[in-house]
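Troubleshooting entry. The earlier prediction with iron/sulfur cluster gave an output that would not parse, so I re-checked the input for stray whitespace and re-submitted. Clean input:
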Amino acid sequence: MCLSIPSKIKSIDKESNICTVDTMGIERSASLDLIDQDVKVGDYVLIHIGFAMNKIDEEDAIESLKLYQEIIDKMEEEERQALIQESENCPKS
Amino acid sequence: MQLELKDLYDGFRDAKTIKAYKKIIEEDAKKLNRTINIMEVCGGHTHTIMKYGIPQLLPSNIKFIHGPGCPVCIMPKERIDHAYILSMQDDVILVTLGDMIKVPGSNGSLQDARSKGADVRFVYSPMDCLKIAKENPTKKIIFFAIGFETTTPMTAALLDIVIKQEIKNIFFHINHVTVPEVMRELIDSRDEHVDSYNHNIDAFLGPSHVSVISGSKIYEEFPKNYKKPVVVAGFEPVDVMQAISMIVKQFCEDRCELEIEYKRLVTYEGNIKAQELINKYFQKVCLFKWRGLGNIKDSGLKLKAEYSKYDAEVIYKEILPIEEIEDHKLCICSDILRGMASPTDCTIFGTACKPNKPVGSCMVSSEGACAAYYKYGNLLK
Ligand code: SF4
Ligand code: SF4
């Protein structure tokens, strides 16, 4: 039941401290009462049972995604090398 | 690169990345001449692990132990009976989160109570209580609060509003539980049988959204005092694979540390504002009974005495029973949660015990180990 969802803030109502968020195309509202950082329109937050729990750190998210891409690239390069070597070692029939 | 919402969904589910990590883990696992049993404490992880077939991706010496993971699953019958009895009061509207619907108590579930005429409402957010209270000024709204550290601050935030706005008809029945205490219990109780079963917890996948609130600091004792590495992992499959790889690396390099894989959301300190709200309104209860695991010291929370006028457990003391109820004899949840048995070892798995008619805790919510095996079990064959 803790499966919260990443969402993007669309608007903030300062008076009620409630924001409207976009969760993969679906609009919902969430309370900002538990957020301990400054949030603004365009920020990514994690929503759980009607509350924004925390801001998603954009830099960290991007860094992870980049790391994943690097790992894939490295794997693919290794695979390519292995393939070349294999074909070279292949006894000509 | 600019972040898009889509990246957060797709990027962390990417099949290529999962495969890449599979390779890395395989290479590293070869260097170990032993098996590593990783406990995923949280049912959210159990769900991801089963849904994406992660056990099949891992080398044979990396295994999972499915932990106690879900506050819905571990809710003992005694507490559900409380909710049931409260909901049957004429002037009460019992409000709780959706996941509680089908959990059976001794008289039935809250869904059954509703079909008998009780006013039970399942809401998406505790904040919905405010609207219900306004629309029903002559009724008493009782919020049956459930959840780990993740949902406790939301209950506190609601109480905060109730007090500030002087709302007279919202009350609370608190069933919040805490994660480190149950982890400690599982490790401490291991000596009795586990060694002879040749099972053991070697490392933990730290629950992610619990840690968003409480910070990774709550797990510090496990690497330090118990020599069990902890990696706090996100819920996406790539997160889980990366975290496993981090755990395996620790073993390869003979390290035992607390690490965060889920850096985009979890910090060491966590959400201080939420923690302050929890500390303002809640205190520990000496013993909280976990379905399947029994009484665990200091593992539950209740409202502090000064807020007892909001505490339904105090107000309705006369009608709420305190006797303990035994778990079903055939149910082996306790062993499953300790990593000593698999759901399929249970004689009534999938027969007398199914998700729509659960007998024990692990079948209750979709995040329970038995429910996950039932749903995704064909992947295991
Ligand atoms: S309630 Fe939260 S912590 Fe518990 S199993 Fe579900 S997701 Fe995990
Ligand atoms: S299948 Fe049902 S009875 Fe058996 S261990 Fe799982 S929850 Fe308990």
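This one parsed fine. Chain B touches chain A through 59 residues (CB under 8 Å).
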